[in-house]
Design a protein that fits this description.
single chain, 270 residues, alpha/beta, TIM Barrel, 8-stranded parallel beta barrel, binds 3-methyl-2-oxobutanoic acid
């Protein structure tokens, strides 16, 4: 059966009924592929800075970079909901700047935006929702706050961190987010959040009890050198791609490529 375009309302309705499958994609070609595979949500994540542009963290990612990748993904016209990540410092300086920048992502083709942070982001979430922009929250490990929290540490192991994560989820729900990503957080805490809030929770490295899961595409495809411990590598594309290109190099060197079907003459040789 043909399934229609996924909307924010559809995502909300999936809670408790059907697990939500979200994955990142950063361009037209990969968006077409993941959409054909049946994902519900495509996240144009700021992880693009690390897995595509070779940065050491997501901190240097700019609005221009995000706009380029969001518009490329949107051109694939996916069935999946397209969520654009707001990069570091595009929403923290002022509520006005946050609305303007989120609006630019929407104009580029995003159908919702994601921001990192909990209760401290309530004013921003409210302003975005007031402007008609659906917002996905992101709690637990916030990579954009790695400097402040001492790296990419597991979250929710002890009080008061557990209570903060629960409180962040409650506050974000009240402010109007339509779903929340929970990253690298103890599975029992993610389970409790999932039970307490009426919006879907989408987890990464936070166990099986959430309403959905998200992974970074390049980890899934085996294209990253050091995938995080919570990712599953479904295929070794690194070797597949290197072997294919190696074969091409060999054939060029040996004069085996191009073959006769790959070129033409103005006057065929006799
Ligand atoms: O940028 C990203 O890919 C993300 C996911 C890890 C949730 O924020």
């Amino acid at each position: 059966m043909e399934r229609g375009k996924v909307t924010v309302r559809d995502v909300l309705k999936m809670k408790g009924k059907e697990k939500i499958a979200m994955i990142t994609a950063y361009d037209y070609a990969s968006a077409k592929l993941v959409d054909a595979a049946g994902v519900d949500i495509i996240l144009v994540g700021d992880s693009v800075g690390m897995v595509v542009h070779g940065l050491d963290s997501t901190l240097p990612v700019t609005m221009d970079t995000m706009l380029l990748h969001v518009s490329s993904v949107a051109r694939a016209k996916p069935r999946a909901l397209v969520v654009g990540d707001m990069p570091f410092l595009s929403y923290e300086v002022s509520v006005e700047e946050a609305v303007r920048n989120a609006g630019l992502l929407i104009k580029a083709g995003a159908e919702a935006v994601k921001i990192e942070g909990g209760s401290e982001m309530v004013d921003v979430v409210k302003a975005l929702v007031r402007a008609g922009i659906p917002v996905m929250g992101h709690i637990g490990l916030n990579p954009q706050r790695a400097l402040l929290i001492g790296g990419y540490r597991r979250r929710g192991l002890k009080e008061p961190e557990r209570e903060k994560i629960l409180n962040d989820a409650r506050e974000l729900e009240k402010a109007g987010v339509f779903s929340v990503v929970i990253e690298y957080t103890a599975a029992d805490v993610a389970e409790e959040v999932t039970r307490e809030v009426s919006i879907p929770t989408i987890c990464i490295g936070s166990g099986p009890h959430c309403d959905g899961q998200v992974l970074v595409l390049h980890d899934v495809l085996g294209l990253t050198d050091n995938p995080p411990p919570f990712a599953r590598v479904y295929v070794d594309l690194k070797n597949t791609i290197t072997s294919a290109v190696k074969k091409y190099v060999e054939e060029v060197k040996k004069g085996l490529f191009p073959a006769r079907e790959h070129y033409f003459y103005s006057t065929p040789p006799s």
